[in-house]
Amino acid sequence: MYRGGIVLKTTEQLDAMDRAGQIHARCLKMLAANCRPGVTTAELDETAERFIRSQGATPTFKGYRGFPGSICASPNAMVVHGIPDDTALERGDVLSIDVGVTKDGWVADGAITVPIGEVSPDDRRLLATTEASLHAAVEQMRPGNHLSDVSHAVQTTVESDGFEVIRALVGHGIGRDMHEDPQVPNFGPAGRGPELEPGMVLAIEPMTAIGTHQIVSGDDGWAVYSADGSMTAHFEFTVAVTEDEPRIITPWHL
């Protein structure tokens, strides 16, 4: 069923997305546990692909519009879309790991940002605030609220702690395709946009920076960086609106 171009999922379809989401959550937690100094992002990528395929699923990102990796691994000032390579993690880095899993034709998408060893107090606070903004956004995923209530929750949480929301990058609807309508900005006034209703599924992904909200693209055509080189963070859940509580499809936090 469609509502204003947004694909509504049935309970049975949400259950199918859950199966992809459970694989995703286990994969992301495993990758986070393997993040330590000396590990390369290519090694994390290989670990993710091996695990995902062992579960009878496929890594959604691999080959998507030509992307070569199974995960996006984006360190420090790189916000998103980092191609895994032989770069070794160092103590004091932070690393965004974004994973997509397709199982039986349904996609689950989510991300976490991991500190590598001890990081600065400002970096710890950035990660904590960005994750908190994601949970605040999830709380808005209830029938009768509006899409911009989700966006507004992210913005107010992030900016109240003195950080910036990356405005040029957005979340998205998700289901059989990784990117469906609607786009989900991480800023804006409350009470606007489509009304949320059961069956809507969104990939909500706050992307933030300590400095400017402006971004620049890398030479490889994929990586996106904060324009001033400041530290960034990225957290993401796939979340469904239900008649009751919001349903987190990718529960890497549990």
Your description of this structure?
With 254 residues, the chain is α+β, with helices and mostly antiparallel strands. The protein has one domain: Creatine Amidinohydrolase. It has four helices and 17 strands. The strands form five sheets. It has a five-stranded antiparallel beta sheet with strand order 10-9-11-16-17. Strands 3, 4, 6 and 7 form a four-stranded antiparallel beta sheet that branches. Strands 5-14-13 form a three-stranded antiparallel beta sheet, with no helix packed on it. Helix 1 packs antiparallel against helix 2 and helix 3 packs antiparallel against helix 4. The longest helix has 23 residues. It is globular and about 45 Å long. The model has no long low-confidence stretch (mean pLDDT 97).
Largest sheet: 5 strands, antiparallel
Strand tally is 17
Average pLDDT over all residues: 97
* Overall CATH class: Alpha Beta
Order of strands across the widest beta sheet? 10-9-11-16-17
Strand content: 25-35%
Query: What would you call the structural class?
Result: alpha+beta
Provide the CATH architecture: Alpha-Beta Complex
Fourth-tier CATH superfamily name: Creatinase/methionine aminopeptidase superfamily
For this structure, the CATH topology is Creatine Amidinohydrolase
Shape annotation:
globular
Number of helices: 4
Poorly predicted ranges (pLDDT <50, ≥5 residues)?
Answer: none
Radius of gyration: 17 Å
Percent helix: 25-40%
